[in-house]
Each structure stands twice: as structure tokens, then as C-alpha cells.
Amino acid sequence: MKGQKRIRDYGIRIGSMETGRLNSITDVQGVHVGHCTLQGDDINTGVTAIKPHQGNLFREKVTAASYVINGFGKTMGTIQLEELGTIEAPIVLTNTLSVGTAHQAVVRYMLQQNEDIGDTTGTVNPIVCECNDGYLNDIRGLHVKDEHVLQALEAAGEEFLEGAVGAGTGMTCYGLKGGIGTASRRILLGTEAYTIGVLVLSNFGRKNDLTIDGFKAGQLIYRLDKEKELSSDKGSVIIVLGADIPMTHRQLKRVCKRTAAGLSRTGTHFGNGSGDIVIGFTTANKVKHYEAESFIGIRALNEKRIDEVFRAAIECTEEAVLNSLICADTTKGRSGHVIHSLKEYISEIALNK
Amino acid sequence: MKGQKRIRDYGIRIGSMETGRLNSITDVQGVHVGHCTLQGDDINTGVTAIKPHQGNLFREKVTAASYVINGFGKTMGTIQLEELGTIEAPIVLTNTLSVGTAHQAVVRYMLQQNEDIGDTTGTVNPIVCECNDGYLNDIRGLHVKDEHVLQALEAAGEEFLEGAVGAGTGMTCYGLKGGIGTASRRILLGTEAYTIGVLVLSNFGRKNDLTIDGFKAGQLIYRLDKEKELSSDKGSVIIVLGADIPMTHRQLKRVCKRTAAGLSRTGTHFGNGSGDIVIGFTTANKVKHYEAESFIGIRALNEKRIDEVFRAAIECTEEAVLNSLICADTTKGRSGHVIHSLKEYISEIALNK
Amino acid sequence: MKGQKRIRDYGIRIGSMETGRLNSITDVQGVHVGHCTLQGDDINTGVTAIKPHQGNLFREKVTAASYVINGFGKTMGTIQLEELGTIEAPIVLTNTLSVGTAHQAVVRYMLQQNEDIGDTTGTVNPIVCECNDGYLNDIRGLHVKDEHVLQALEAAGEEFLEGAVGAGTGMTCYGLKGGIGTASRRILLGTEAYTIGVLVLSNFGRKNDLTIDGFKAGQLIYRLDKEKELSSDKGSVIIVLGADIPMTHRQLKRVCKRTAAGLSRTGTHFGNGSGDIVIGFTTANKVKHYEAESFIGIRALNEKRIDEVFRAAIECTEEAVLNSLICADTTKGRSGHVIHSLKEYISEIALNK
Amino acid sequence: MKGQKRIRDYGIRIGSMETGRLNSITDVQGVHVGHCTLQGDDINTGVTAIKPHQGNLFREKVTAASYVINGFGKTMGTIQLEELGTIEAPIVLTNTLSVGTAHQAVVRYMLQQNEDIGDTTGTVNPIVCECNDGYLNDIRGLHVKDEHVLQALEAAGEEFLEGAVGAGTGMTCYGLKGGIGTASRRILLGTEAYTIGVLVLSNFGRKNDLTIDGFKAGQLIYRLDKEKELSSDKGSVIIVLGADIPMTHRQLKRVCKRTAAGLSRTGTHFGNGSGDIVIGFTTANKVKHYEAESFIGIRALNEKRIDEVFRAAIECTEEAVLNSLICADTTKGRSGHVIHSLKEYISEIALNK
To answer: What ipTM does this complex have?
Structure first.
């Protein structure tokens, strides 16, 4: 976004469904995304924050679900998310060794906004996700601080950059520069249109496995490449899925699970060393912290209509990964490591596809 | 029921909550239970059927959940139950080697009632649960036939026998005669009263572990006993939980999980060889097979009120196990094996408690 | 096999790894597969049996795991499989309404082979899996009988047919004739070569989603097709994965989970109405029923080497699905329904790919 | 320990198995426990650290498993623990809002000890568990700092205090002062003796539910009490289980699950608002970070012997909870809140039991 050339701008259209206005998770009404990028010398890291809505999230929780594709990861907050089926704090993404810091920052942010937490009511459950950017970033330096998390939260809006930005600054995907990518789809259910969007933090995959809309781009890149070294399939990917479709936790979890199919179409084998985690929410069916009634009315999807939602989740995920690659610039980082951008190969790929 | 002397009739009151009218799972409006008992020579087995409501269950499914306490068991149908959160056929209990037969019988029963199944619509998912009654029953003889399942289904009503009857005919629990037991509790949520009930098929536990309302009855029995042999903690227990409380699948699953606490208060260690499975449903929030709308309205419990439901599930389970014991008569079975009734010890227990 | 022309014979090579001798699950030493096919008038159904080894499986269980990709299915036996991590009876595949019959037949078969079951030792846990062949088969007729299961068990050997045979006789996959398919891969781990194989019962997918090695074959077929009707993504797929690689239950479960990536590369969205179940076993680390020792030595894979096993599982699954399609002949069945073979389109696909 | 009067010293013996030398988790060879206690004015909080062995835990990981009894909790690190079946960093317990801080401190501690982490090898997965001590502690003040975590780690040894100490300083259990408690059991498996131990951080339960060895102590306390207010069943409990028994991840997970039975015997209903999490490890079957071999030999328990391990886990858990209560002194904290010690009632209980 924000003037960046995305995968569709190269004539590559994933799937058949209509996109949202921005082709972004922020097409889901109320969802905002913000970054804080840290760069300099050996530092290539940052924070990305996703706010599910613009009200008080602790007081009006969103229905949520998570799914672990491969669990070699350190994401925090999913135990409670799964038990209660809600998210009550912004979702924050950062590097693996900074999740504790990010957690602490979200706690401070939530305490500031809610005087009741830890005083007259219970505590709060931050959702913090991560990938390991240690190849390009001095991850041992623990450069992410409280204020960077707050900056990402404050920067959150409808339009945001993709690629090597925020938590994606130092990430590597299919041996190329990865990072933040997003996409969305519109779905007609009954007489109304709904939106589903995905944001990925991409940091997984082996270079010669990269597949673009069925084309084995990675093998071409590998042949073009001078370096000829095979990366291994490790690193992780975080998938945040947002929707405005009325669903229960169980239904939403089924949708989250489908994102794995989108990932796998980009070529991955869900390597052992990868933490592949999905966090999903819907802005329908909000749950009040101070609910006075004994029972609450919610709306559930007629499960026979869920196939289109599955398809949309898969299309979004595949496209979001490709956007994360094509928007990311070649990056030089820690110890002189360089990771090249997909942009350097895209015209060759377009010729051969 | 039906004139049987139950654990409360011996002055033992489990917990503090009010019971339903019959203190039975059938206190949940519409739930019926029926038995078919097979006895003679080496045969001590049977079938118990639970119908969640009296309409067409395939066309009006009940919201459901399951929970595996210990999975050394052969219960059928839980994969789909968990994926879709519904039950669409009566729940049938029988012996371990007859689950296939019972499954086939339920299929026939459902095909007869629904001409669309397997023709113009999909198939059907029977729920068949089991315990191993091989100590008292010639289980290798495969004596349960299609017609016995149908007889149990046809016999289903509000009042039913407990103890050594139906699927419970040959079961052994804490080294004593076990089988079918039930109990229920009433809960006030908001301004309305709701009912939760549990039916157990008890076939687990080691004799000297039996605990009755905190009293180590098993150790007393063990001392009184001439035989002095220690049974091992294997066999299995099936717990069927019914309610009329509006809940989602996720909430109901949490309630199902609590029944383990009720079981453990009767003294069990959830032995390796035991298949301890919980099947739960609520008659609120029915799901139509031919739903025309894209979205359906359902009611969910305000989760802050769920503690009373947890407590009720635990009380019901503990009491249902004790009812299964105290209602069961001493039984002689395969190869002359004899399993004694708790009744033989209950006055001694009452004196010492 | 047995002279059938498979997907490789059309020049389509899935992945980069070496296949086993037969490119079949039976390349895993000791694994045998047998079919019983029922065909005539409205009948198109059958049974396929997989034996993990040729000894007494109850006395020497194989280490096993399962994974539910989508749970709209009626597979039996996975609760115990997951709790104990073993399989102790042949795996049997058939149609959805015949799983009870198949279960009963396997019980009889196991009782006959093991006089101790249900007498001096516990019971047995059959693994029965299914797909719904109701479009081509009179599934309401319940045509599968005990003897058909036994015939499949007796027919089991190293070489077996693929396509519209055994349990695959009436199955439909991507709107084309599906059924049984298999593939295998060889892996060098340390100094030794190991084998992993997959057998699928394919009955899933929407016609225009079919993807063959990245090529959107389904869209081509859809354009070529006169009928132009869109099938929906329901039906199910069963994936049986066998290996001779020393792994624990946990490791094997991780491998089972990867087969979903292989499936998704053939184009599926894991539709709501599909029961997509994986059953995996390894012939290494057998578990004795009458183990005398308190502890047993087993061998586990160094988890850093598991990526190659993941890759092999994915390649096998993708190729097995394609083999199930290309080996299946056009089939006419119930009510005159006809499902065409991929063979009718393959030359056109080869031209356009 | 360290001269504290424990529940056995009041004549209350839980279960029938033999305890270890110290009746502590540290009876498992190599396990050390340390506290850092923060107290003053409104502050009642702290940190407790458990080291599974005294070597380099990152280089020699322990086989591990976790189990969520009720997931209203914020424990970190279980996603990877479950995927890989190992623990590679000390387990740290603290208050709910300080888990981020504790995570960061463990990261620093591990980076200092391992120069390869985040440089030439991957990252590290801290296990941080929590309960909410907000009733007695100014939890909003975020008083736990990095150095307190390091102090707890440095203080770790075989003998340690129980009750209102370390992470237990501000915890409340059954309306009484709770905190840290421990217990152990010895088991003969084959010809050798093994040890299993449990450490709890207790912060759950409603006052009148407390059950001590079957006796409804809570009801007595409630009658004796002047205040007569009913606490609700929220707060959480963390259960850390250590053993030296050769087991696989799957077996250990089964053992972890049994601790719920021990908990439930103390009277809890696993309330909605409670995060009840179990972390288990065995010092047998260590996993090397730099394993050179493709396969590793491990020892597994003959599953038929696992019942005694289940029983031990249950006995340890029940006794550890009681030790956490009886060792804790009456504590005055935030806003003048006072929580009384079980000691004030124990003689009355002993008289009535």
C-alpha cells in the first residue's frame, strides 16, 4: 500500500474472488495496523501492531481463535484465547527474543487505558507473536524497547506499508527478503457483503521451493542466482486473520486452519524449525467485559456457507505472502548479510511463467 | 428410579445444589433413556440408548461437545461431533466389541427415519460408546444384535432403571457391580431455572480406591472382604451430559471437561486401561439440517455465570457413579465370576462414615 | 500398479525425491494392501485393507498417530490410537454407512486370530475409515458385508490396483473419478535409506480447483466440459501413511500433519463437508502386547532431520491423489450418474501445461 | 521445608505411597528451586524458579509436556514445548502482569550462558507461568524486575521455603493464604526406584470448597469464620511436575493430565476464572541441542506400568496444595486486605476430622 507496487501490479492474480478496497486486512471495518521500524548498522527489526477495532478492546472483546500449523514458536496469549474464544488487547508482532518486552509494553498500554485491570477486575491477556530475524538483525542486542511497541500502536491506521517494515524489517522468506504482507477478499453471504483479510509476517521457506501462482519461481531464481546456497525451511510465519463475518469461536478456528493451504501453495513444507501460528478474530459477536445479562445473543454462520470463507482465507494468505515478498527491498544487515528482494527476479519470472 | 433405592435414600447427599424432579438426565426436557438387557449363562451385556429430544434429531441437531479424559476406548463419532459441534443421532452405549454392530443398527434406524440420508443429502454420524464387560460377559460371543439396539431405542422414556441394566448389565466399578447411574441439578441463571443431568456407564476403578462423599469406603470394603484381591483401575466409564442451558460448543466442552473432577472424587486415578469419554449436548441452540438462512441466531452463556454449571456437572457425575453402584445387584456371570453389590456394604459404610 | 498407467507415465513428476521400487506404500517392508470391489447396477463400493506388517499385529503393535485435517467424517479408532500411540489391527477403508459393518468384521477377524482378546486380556481397537460414495453407489443399500472385509484382508499383498477399486470403487475426486492411489519416497537418514509411503482414498474437491503439479488443470477441464456444473468441495479423503523410519508418536503426528500440504497442492480448500483424516504408522519401534520389561528402548529421529520426512510425506500425498485420478476409469453408477476419468483430459492437459 | 511444619506434621497423610527424602520436587536428582520474595506496603509478590537439571539446559534439553486444565491463564512457552516435547530454559513463576518481564529476564540469562543463541543457532523458548496476586499485591505497580528473576535463579537449590514466598508471596487459595507447596513420591519400576515430584503455585478455589483428605474443612472454616464472605473460584494454579522416569512426551503428557485429579480432591471445581496449567518434565531421555546422530535411543515406560506413576502424580499434587496452605502465614497486603493462614484453623480441623 501507500504507493507500493504489489503482486497484482505485476499481473499475478491469486484466486478468483473479489478483493476489498485496499486489498488489506484493514478493509475489515475498524481494523488498524501500525509499524515501528528499527534500522541501522546491524539492527533490522521492529514492531507491528494490529488493532481489531477502535473502541476499548478490553471492554468489548472480539471473538477469536488460533491455530498452530507448526509450533516451533514463542507466541504468547493463545492459551486464554483458546479457552475463552476472545481477544482483549491489540495483537503485537516482533522478533523472537523481544516478545517479553512487547508483552510488558502491551500490559503498560492496557493498564493506562483501563484503571480497573488488576484493581477491581482481573488481569489482561496480550497476544504477542514473533519470528526470528537473527540473520539480518542483531537479535541478541534486544533492541526493541517499550516505546517502540507504543509507537507501533500509535501509528496504527488503515493504510500501512508492506515488506521490510515494522516486525518485518529483518525477516527472510524463501531465501528472499520477506516481512509484512496483506490481502483481503469480499464475500456475499445472504444479501450482504462481508470482508475477510489476512496480514502475514513472513519468515519461512527454502529458496528453491517458492511457488508463485503454481509457477516454480524458486527453481528459476535458484538457477539465476550466483550464490547457489540452499536455505533451510525455518524461521516462522505469523498469520493474522480478521473478518467481520458472524461466526463462533469453533467456526473461526476452522477458517484459521485453512490458511495453511494458502501457505502451502507458496511452496513451503512447514519445516521443523518454523513457528507457523495463526491468530484469527471477527469483529462480529463482540463480548462485553462487564456483561450484565446471563445470556447473550450471538450470530453464527450457517456452516453450509463456510466454504466460501475457507476459500477467501486461503486466497488471502497466498497473496499476502507474495505481497510481503514483492514489497520488500533488498536489505543488508548483521555481519554484512544481504537478502535480495523478489523484485530483482520478478521480470524474469513474468517472462517464464 | 422406578422404585430403586438410590444413594440419597441412604442419607448420602452429594454437593449442595438442588436436584431435578427425578434426579436424572431425563429431567432435561425431552431427553429419554431406554435399555435392552441381555442376560443368561455367560451372557451379561446390553444396550442403553439416550435420545436428546423427541423430534427428528437428524433434521434438528443438538449442540454438542465431547471430551476424552483417558482415551483407552473405542467410542465412535467424536471426530465429526468436535468438528461441527452437533449430535444428529441417538447416543448408544454397549460393550466394546459390539460398537460396530450398534453403529450399523443406528445407521439402519436413521435411514428408516430419514429417506434423504445417503440419497439427496449426506450421511449420518452415529455416536456409539462402550465399556468392556468381559469379566462378567462372554464378550467374544458378540451377543448384541441389531434388534437389541432397536429395542433400547424403542424403550426410551423418562423413567428408566439404574445399575446392572442395559449396557451396564455386565459392568464392574471399583471392584463392585457397576453399570448405569444418573443424577441431575437445577440452576438458576438470570430469572430462569435450567437443568443439567448426567448419565454414566461405570466400569472403572480399583476396589480400595472407592470414595463416597469423601469417606474412603473402598478401604473399609477391602478390609471386610474375604477375597482381598486388588482389582486394577481399568475398564472405562462413559459420561453422557445433557442440559437445556444455552451454550456454544466451546462452553459446553468446558463443562464436559469438569465431569472428570466428579469422577476423581469417587477415588479413581484415571487408570491407563480405562476409556473415559464424555459426550455432552444441550437442547438449546438446535441446528437445522436444512437451514435456509446464511446466519442463525444462537444464545450463549455469559461466561462469568458458568461456574455454577461446572459445579452442577461435577455434583451430577459424582452422584451418578454412586447411583450406578448402589442400584446394581450382585451379579454372577462368565466362568462363574461374581461381582458383589455396594448394597452388601452400605450399612457398614453408613456406620463408619 | 499391475500394469496401470500412472501419473509419472504421463511425464508428470511430483517433487524431486526418489520413489520406492513400486512407488507404493507397500515399498515399506511388510506393508500389504488388498481390495474387495463390489460393482453392479446401482452398486459401486468396496473395501480396502492395509496391513502394517505380516506378523500378529495385536501382539506386535506399530507406533502410530493420526491427524484430522477436517473432521466431517466417521473414522473409528482414533481416540485410542492417539492415547496410546499404537495401531493393533489392520486399517480398513470402506463407505461411510458401512463403517459399523467393517468394524464388526475386523473384530471377528481379530478374535479368530487371537484367542486371548476379550478372554484373558483386553479388547481390540480396529481402525476403520470411510468416504461417502453415495453419488455413484446405492449407499443406503448397505451392500458391504462381513465377508467383503475378510476378502480384502485376504487379498492383501505388495501389488494392488489403483483407481476405481476396493473402497475407491464409487469415489469422486475433483468432479472426476477418484478412488485409491499410492506413492512412496526414499530418504537417506544417516547412512541408511528409509521409505515412506502414502495411500489415499480420494473423494474430495471441486472440479475447477484441480491443480496438477502447479497447472490449473481443473479450469481447463471445466472449459472442455460440456456439463459445466460445479461440484462442491465435499466428500472426504483418507490418507494412510506408512514408514519404516524410527520415530515417536509425536514425531509421526507431525509428519501426518504435513500431508495436508500435499493435498492442498492438488487444489482443495478442505471444504466443510469433507472428512479429511490421516492415519500414520511406522514399522520401527514396535510395541509388544505382552511386554515383560518395565522399560523399553526405542529409537527416535533427530528432529533436525525431520524436514526431509515432511517433504517426502507431502510429495507422496500429492502424487497419490493424482494416481488415484489417472488410474480410475470412467464409471457409471446409481441412477445413471456418470463420473469421467482424468484419462479423458490428460492429453489436453499435457499439451497445455 | 527448612524447618517449616508441613501437612504431614499435623498427622494428615495423603495417599499410600512412600515420599522422597525431602518430600519435594527437588528429590528428583538435579532439580533445584529458588525464590525471590518482594514484600512491603502494598507489595506482595515475587518469583520462583525451577531448574530441571544443573547442566546447560539449552544444550541438554529435558523431555517435557504440558497440559491445560483450564486456560484462563497467560503461561508462555507451551506452544513450542508441545511441538518439540522439550524444555530448554528454567521454568519461572511470577504474577500475571509480570510474565513479560520474566520472559525478558530469562532471555538475558540464557543469552549470557549461551553465546550461540541468536547468533550461530536459533533462539530460546522460556517457560514462564503465572497466577494473579492482585488481591494482596499492587499488581498494577509491576514491581517485579529483571534482577528479581535472576535472584530467584541464583537462589535455586535443593531446599527451599513453602507458603507465602517467591511467586507465592501474594497468592490466595481456597480463601486462605496460598503460595508455593511441594511433595514427592518414590516408585519401584522393575528393580529400580524412581522419583516424581510436584511443585504448585496455588491461587485458586472457594473457601467453603476446601477438602483435606476427604474432610470438608472449608465448610468448617466457613462456619468458624467471622467474615462469612464467599470467595469465588478464580485465580489460577500452576503445577510443575518433575520426574526421573524414562518416558516419552506422550506418556509424560498423560501423567501431567492426572494432576487434575489431585487438585479436584482438594475441592476445586476448576472455576472459569482460573488458569490451571501443568508443566511436566523428566530428566531421563535428555535431548542434545547439537545432536550429531540421525537417530537417538530413548527409553519409554511399558505403558502397563504407568498406573503407579499416575497415582503418584495425583498424591503429590493433593499434598503439595495442602503444603502450600499450611506453610503460608497470614498476610496483610494491598489496601489493607488480609488473608488468613490455614494454621489458624488446623487444630479445629484435626479435632473434627
So the answer is: 0.96
